[in-house]
Amino acid sequence: MVAECATQPDIQVPISGIGGIENWQDAVEFMLMGASNVQVCTAAMHHGFRIVEDMIDGLTNYLDEKGLNSAMDLVGQSVSKYKKWGDLDLNHKRVARINQDYCIHCNKCHISCEDAAHQCIEFYTESDGTRALKVREQDCVGCNLCSIVCPAEGAIEMIEQPSDVSMTWNERQRLISVFGG
């Protein structure tokens, strides 16, 4: 919704990002898509107002890391990459890959994938006898749940999978209407 508003040239009021903001990364995503401010409600109810201080600290560190002077420098920077759902590539695929050098073996990725996603993360035994986790990439749908629940930075990476054919939902619907379905 934020990007929809940001792409409309006749909307000249500040856009406020609301709904699902739980950390500084969420706030940055809303701002990149055009929100000049964000609001937090449920997350503050769950975690208290300390969450706002954590967001400010995280955002400040992010801005420093990116060499930006102000949070306003983020506003709208990703709007040009926004696509309506009908224009998204149906054949776009990403899969999760676990980096054993960063994995802390908490098994949160396995639990979330097993119980709420596609059951494609499995245990295996390495040559030294230690147990590790691996993604069956052919079964992974790229939902990103495993990387969201993973507390170890860099342990799970989402890898682009090349596709020979690109087709959007709009193109598919057009072909069905022309050739029948």
From TrEMBL:
Reactions listed under catalytic activity: 5,6-dihydrothymine + NAD(+) = thymine + NADH + H(+); 5,6-dihydrouracil + NAD(+) = uracil + NADH + H(+)
Enzyme kind, highest EC tier: oxidoreductase
InterPro entries attached to this UniProt entry: 4Fe4S_Fe-S-bd (IPR017896), 4Fe4S_Fe_S_CS (IPR017900), Aldolase_TIM (IPR013785), Dihydroorotate_DH_cat (IPR005720)
TM annotation in the entry: none
Gene Ontology CC, one term: cytoplasm
Keyword Cytoplasm: no
Keywords: Iron, Iron-sulfur, Metal-binding, Oxidoreductase
Domain (4Fe-4S ferredoxin-type) ranges: 94-123, 131-161
Keyword Membrane: no
EC number(s) per entry: 1.3.1.1
Entry superkingdom: Bacteria
One Pfam entry name: Fer4_21
GO MF: dihydropyrimidine dehydrogenase (NAD+) activity; iron-sulfur cluster binding; metal ion binding
The family this protein is said to belong to: Belongs to the dihydropyrimidine dehydrogenase family.
Function: Involved in pyrimidine base degradation. Catalyzes physiologically the reduction of uracil to 5,6-dihydrouracil (DHU) by using NADH as a specific cosubstrate. It also catalyzes the reverse reaction and the reduction of thymine to 5,6-dihydrothymine (DHT).
Family matches, as PANTHER family: DIHYDROPYRIMIDINE DEHYDROGENASE [NADP(+)]
Subunit structure as annotated in this protein's UniProt entry: Heterotetramer of 2 PreA and 2 PreT subunits.
Protein name: dihydrouracil dehydrogenase (NAD(+))
Species this protein is from: Sporolactobacillus inulinus
